Amino acid sequence: MSMSQESAETIALQALAWLAANEDLLPVFLGSTGTVAQDLRERAKDADFLGSILDFLLMDDAWVVAFCDTAGLSYEKPMLARAALPGGKQVYWT
Q1: Can you give the residue range of the structural domain that contains 39?
Q2: What is the total count of domains within the chain?
Q3: Is residue 93 part of a domain?
């Protein structure tokens, strides 16, 4: 099952809004990406940055579950969205 880049960007923006509302997790995200809160709005227009949001979210199953439950999405949607954004294709080394 694939997803359009536009749909993937929408999910990533939802994830960013979810992160921004989480006062415990937002500083962790900002620190891991080197982004400052004042730059989030501008960087949210960049598909590569949107991919980094989903990369961060996908690091912890509990974060995926909490985000998807809040957004009303099935649990595989963030992974499908990440695959549709730049750098999200899985590499097969065989």
Answers
A1: 5-84
A2: 1
A3: no
Rounded CA separation 76/70 (Å): 14
Tell me if 18 sits within 8 A of 71, measured CB to CB: yes
- CB-based burial label for 60 (10 Å; 0-12, 13-18, 19+): exposed
Confidence category of residue 27, pLDDT binned at 50, 70, 90: very high
Lowest-pLDDT range of 20-24, 35-39, 47-51: 35-39
11 contacts 81 by C-beta, under 8 angstroms: yes
**Residue at 17 is within a domain:** yes
10: helix, strand or coil: helix
**pTM for the whole thing?**
0.88
pLDDT of residue 11: 97
The DSSP annotation for 33-86 comes to HT--GGGHHHHTT-HHHHHHHHHHHTT-HHHHHHHHHHHT--TTHHHHHHHHST
